[in-house]
Amino acid sequence: MTEDLSREAADPLCLSQDEAVRLLHGAPWRRFAAMGDSFAAGIGGPSHGYADTSWPERIAAALGAGRPDFQYLNTGVIGKRAAEARAEQLEQVMAFEPDLVNVAVGGNDLFDPEPDLDAVEADLDAVYGALRSRGADVFAFTVANVFDTVPELADFGTRVAAFNDRIRAVATRHDAMLVEMWDHPVRKRPELMSKDGIHFAMEGHAALAAEIVRTLSQRLSQLGAEGRVG
């Protein structure tokens, strides 16, 4: 039976696979890695009318289209905290010798009674610094503000906003690409969240992947303007 992708095809926040491949045509990245927690791992439930494909798989497919030498590594693990990702995943990711890395971790640290955001930022700084020292491009995304539409998570909103500020600061210091999802219109979708109430369903993954592709495409334009690509 053919998978019903009608809603995704009509969604203005999404990109088709062909369009994603077109936007990333000529990209220099051949070794893509994602590291961190469940956000990096691509955890999420199904959405009717959308491909059951997580955002990391979508990005890997777009980057790897027509490239037999392309490789993809995902070390994301549910529940990991920033310090754990740094201690347990960074070495493996570095050994993979990636040229593009997503770092998505720190959200689980927010469940502490008094989250130590200074420590989270220090761990992110160390991870970004190590990756950038090896020449890898890094990208991150802020956590979407779903707290207007998910009342049970409302108390978490202030913590997430502060956490997002740390992500922005680290990304700026290390010239990392930043995908802004805090105010993204997808956050208002009534069926955005998985049943666990924490992760995007595939509708959200499709929108996130589209924003990542657009962000990567903007970096390609910058590189091209500097005479290094194209």
Mean pLDDT across all residues, rounded? Answer: 94
Shape: globular
Query: How would you characterize the largest beta sheet?
Result: 5 strands, parallel
Percentage of residues in helical conformation: 40-55%
- The second-level CATH architecture is 3-Layer(aba) Sandwich
Q: Taking Cα atoms only, what radius of gyration do you get, to the nearest Å?
A: 17 Å
What's the order of the H and E elements?
HHEHHEHHEHEHEH
Low-confidence stretches: none
Q: What's the CATH H-level superfamily name? A: SGNH hydrolase
Distance between the termini: 41 Å
Strand content: 5-15%
Structure notes:
The longest helix is centred in the last third of the chain and has 24 residues, at 202-225. It contains nine helices and five strands. Helix content is 43%, strand content 10%. It has one domain: SGNH hydrolase (Rossmann fold, 3-Layer(aba) Sandwich), CATH 3.40.50. The radius of gyration is 17 Å and the shape is globular. A five-stranded parallel β-sheet has the order 2-1-3-4-5, sandwiched between helices. Helix 2 (17-23) packs across helix 4 (55-64), helix 4 (55-64) runs parallel beside helix 9 (202-225) and helix 7 (117-133) runs parallel beside helix 8. The relative contact order is 0.19. The chain has 230 residues and is of the alpha/beta class.
Offer a quick outline of the entry:
The protein has helices at residues 6-10, 17-23, 38-41, 55-64, 82-88, 90-96, 117-133, 157-173, 202-225; strands spanning 31-36, 71-74, 100-104, 137-141, 177-179.
